[in-house]
Amino acid sequence: MTTKTALVTGANKGIGLEIARQLRALGLHVLVGARDPLRGKEAATAIGAEFLQLDVTDPDSIAAAAGQVEVLDVLVNNAGILLERGALPSATPVAMLRETFEVNVLGVVAVTNAFLPALRRAPSARIVNLGSGLGSLAFTADPSHVYAQNPLLAYNSSKTALAAVTLSYANELRSTPIKVNLADPGYCATDLNFHSGPRTPTQGATAAVRLATLPDDGPTGAFHDEDGVVPW
Fold first, then answer.
1. What is the pLDDT of residues 45-81, one digit of tens each?
2. 40 within 8 A of 51, measured Cβ to Cβ
3. Which of 4, 147, 155, 187 is catalytic?
4. In the sheet where 29-34 sits, what is the strand order?
5. Is 169 among the catalytic positions?
6. Catalytic residue, candidates 13, 159, 169, 187
7. Per-residue confidence at 2, pLDDT binned at 50, 70, 90?
8. How confident is the model at residue 200 (pLDDT cuts 50, 70, 90)?
9. Rg (the chain; Cα; Å)
10. What is the DSSP letter of 12?
11. If DSSP codes are grouped into helix, strand and coil, which group holds residue 33?
12. How many domains, the chain?
């Protein structure tokens, strides 16, 4: 049996590293995508994976990385940033939105497009995008919901946009064996939030790993956390 190959972007630390670790433990050949070669190689070595230099905001880096992968069974678009530190929407600089969307949305599109030929060569590929409950319009439209109390304009809207991106690819690829889904890791303690979250990266990786290893009768165009469906 041919070993399946998975690429996880932003996988040198946090939830991305834990997703890579869990996929490696399941027997997949894992590519640890990271911008920094030193950190990326250290992370890959620690979990028995392979480092792949990849900056999701650099077209040349993306093209070079895609050129090294002939067949890809799993793509986990995990790389993301959160730049806001409590600023109200009206005080959020437009430049911050641009920078956030460049990584959290446009980076996902650029990487997915570059690796789609390799994904199509796999018998039944999976694409998993890392979303957030903060991007759920159903949650944030409810004034009583805890997520409505965190109006992070750049981050939240980027994750809402990523939900639309996920559905767009799921619909395009619905007639193929490729499944495209959105995973909510929950509020995890990572560098992204100065380790303030109550959940661990191990817990945060659960939904993404499950969606990355779905059987052929699994869902596509779905938004899940570890407990099941999350409302859009």
1. 999 999 999 999 999 999 999 999 999 999 999 999 9
2. yes
3. 155
4. 50-53, 29-34, 5-8, 74-77, 126-130, 179-183, 223-225, 228-229
5. no
6. 159
7. confident
8. confident
9. 17
10. S
11. strand
12. 1
Mean pLDDT of 144-159: 94
Rounded to an integer, the average pLDDT of 104-115 is 98
Percent of the chain that is helix, strand, coil (3-state, to 5): 45, 15, 40
pTM for the model:
0.94
Is residue 179 part of the annotated active site? The answer reads no
Query: Model confidence at 193, in pLDDT bands (50, 70, 90)?
Result: low
Residue of 193, 227, 207, 210 whose CA lies nearest to 14: 193
Q: Which residue has the tokens 């430049």?
A: 95
Q: Containing domain of residue 222, as a range?
A: 5-229
Residue 35 belongs to a domain with what CATH number?
3.40.50.720
Confidence of residue 201 (pLDDT cuts 50, 70, 90): confident
The DSSP code sequence of 34-48 is ES-HHHHHHHHHHHT
Classify burial at 98, counting beta carbons within 10 Å of its beta carbon; exposed 0-12, middle 13-18, buried 19 or more.
exposed
Q: What are phi and psi of 127, to 5 degrees?
A: -120, 125
Q: What is the DSSP letter of 199?
A: B
Q: Within 13 Å of residue 93, how many CA atoms lie on the same side as its CB?
A: 8
